[in-house]
Design goal:
Largest sheet: 8 strands, parallel
Helix content: 40-55%
CATH class: Alpha Beta
Strand order of the largest sheet: 1-2-3-4-5-6-7-8
Number of domains: 1
Low-confidence stretches: none
Number of helices: 11
CATH topology: TIM Barrel
CATH architecture: Alpha-Beta Barrel
Distance between the termini: 21 Å
Number of strands: 8
Strand content: 5-15%
Structural class: alpha/beta
């Protein structure tokens, strides 16, 4: 399995807030916390840290029970901007410290050297602004570079797109070999898992839903999942995913669904593995 230290620190299931804005973000996070979610994922570029922060504050859930992640946007990678931008995120979130801060994407075109932004991220942790540090959307080459610069122990996770239609096998294999924890964003392929016959059939056999099947498949590999939803029923159902016990046949059928279908692929993305 993957890195046991990070795995035990990063809750296996969380609430993603990508594309949630304003009151939608506030209500979704409030509902999630009420249902028992304790891992909340946001980012500077989502423009919802304030709403997420308000929901956390209003929930009354003790801070010690929560695991909150934010991500530094590419505009804030330079030495003069990274720490001030994280302080601003903390103000919006109404927190003294986040549990995990990620570099959201590698610097587009390598404009800001990795040494600079990872160095600043380490400084942010030394200043107590974040408990853990990590990366998102890093390829194998970029991860190797990060390991050389700051050491693998300072990369608590690599948050990447993984779902049945993009299984990211090279990266997953590399992570397993290197003991690197992974977090899957868009684990439900923005709803596409609901329209797949194979997943439908497996779900039916287990008295489960296709999203539960997919999340069980990811968590079984030691990969954390952060699905996003505004619907109470879906949020509640997602929390039950760890009850689904997939068979070897199920895993084999899911394995066959991979078609390299990448959803998050902006023009500044790295050259994927």
């Amino acid at each position: 399995m993957m890195k046991s230290t990070s795995e035990s620190m990063i809750p296996p299931i969380g609430m993603g807030t990508f594309r949630l804005k304003g009151n939608d973000a506030y209500q979704a996070v409030s509902t999630a916390l009420e249902l028992g979610y304790r891992h909340i994922d946001t980012a500077q570029i989502y423009g919802n840290e304030q709403d997420v922060g308000r929901a956390i504050t209003d929930s009354g859930v003790p801070r010690s029970e929560l695991f909150v992640t934010t991500k530094i946007w590419t505009d804030n990678f330079t030495q003069d901007k990274l720490i001030p931008s994280l302080r601003e995120s903390l103000d919006k979130l109404q927190l003294d410290q986040v549990d995990l801060t990620l570099i959201h994407w590698p610097s587009p075109g390598g404009k800001v050297p990795m040494q600079e932004y990872l160095g600043e991220l380490m400084n942010a942790r030394e200043q107590g602004l974040t408990r853990l540090t990590g990366v998102s959307n890093f390829t194998i080459d970029l991860l190797n570079e990060a390991f050389e610069l700051v050491g693998p122990d300072n990369i608590a996770t690599n948050q990447v797109e993984i779902h049945p239609f993009l299984q990211n096998r090279k990266l997953v294999e590399f992570a397993r070999e290197e003991d690197l924890h992974l977090t899957a964003y868009m684990p439900l392929a923005v709803g596409k898992v609901m329209q797949d016959e194979t997943l439908d059939r497996i779900a039916e056999e287990h008295g489960a839903t296709p999203p539960q099947v997919v999340m069980a498949w990811l968590m079984r590999q030691g990969i954390a999942v952060i699905p996003s939803s505004t619907k109470r029923l879906h949020l509640e159902s997602n929390l039950e995913a760890n009850r689904v016990q997939l068979t070897a046949d199920d895993l084999n059928f899911i394995h066959q669904l991979d078609r390299g279908e990448r959803i998050a692929n902006p023009d500044f993305a790295p050259e994927w593995d």
